[in-house]
Amino acid sequence: MTELSLWGLFLSAFISSTIAPGGSEAVLAYMVNASNFQVIDLIAIAAVGNTLGSLTTWGLGILAAKKYSPDTVLSAKHHKAIHLVKKWGYWALLFAWLPVVGDGFCFAGGWLKLPFFLSCIAIFLGKTIRYCAVAYLVNNASVFS
């Protein structure tokens, strides 16, 4: 049963970082609170799953760039994301964890063919920091009550 829980966290994190909405932070918070696993393991699983989901969106950006011009297919959100990623480069992908715009940053990173390795590191770092913050808040919830 415990292995199944870890796979559930991974899948939740993966799905949460693609176009489909998800609640991986809530799943992580529940599992941290349950104290059945090492917090560092939970953070790592969530961060890897979330990063792989974002890299899927990044890959979709590459595929879209091969087939369509930006003016014919992209929404205003994606145009803005492409502008910001052009300006900041792979550093913008540190913010891939942000709701709504994060997916646009990943898509834009793929569209602009940013270096895969640097994109992967930036996405992973941003996602890991976010999950560390969630775990920290859960472990210190008594401070807020």
What is this structure, in a nutshell?
This protein is mainly alpha-helical and 145 residues long. The protein has helices spanning 2-16, 24-34, 39-67, 70-73, 76-88, 101-111, 116-139.
What does this structure look like?
The chain is mainly alpha-helical and 145 residues long. It has one domain (2-144). Helix content is 74%, strand content 0%. The chain has 7 helices and no strands. It has helices spanning 2-16, 24-34, 39-67, 70-73, 76-88, 101-111, 116-139. The relative contact order is 0.16. The model has no long low-confidence stretch (mean pLDDT 85).
Which short descriptors sum up this protein?
elongated, mainly alpha, 145 residues, 0% strand
The number of domains: 1
Q: Quick check: average pLDDT?
A: 85
Order of helices and strands: HHHHHHH
Uncertain spans:
none
What is the overall number of helices? Answer: 7
Fraction of residues in helices?
over 70%
Tell me the major beta sheet.
Answer: none
Principal-axis shape equals elongated
Beta-strand proportion = under 5%
Report the strand count. 0
Structural class: mainly alpha
The N- to C-terminal Cα distance equals 32 Å
What topology does this entry show?
Blueprint: H1 2-16, H2 24-34, H3 39-67, H4 70-73, H5 76-88, H6 101-111, H7 116-139
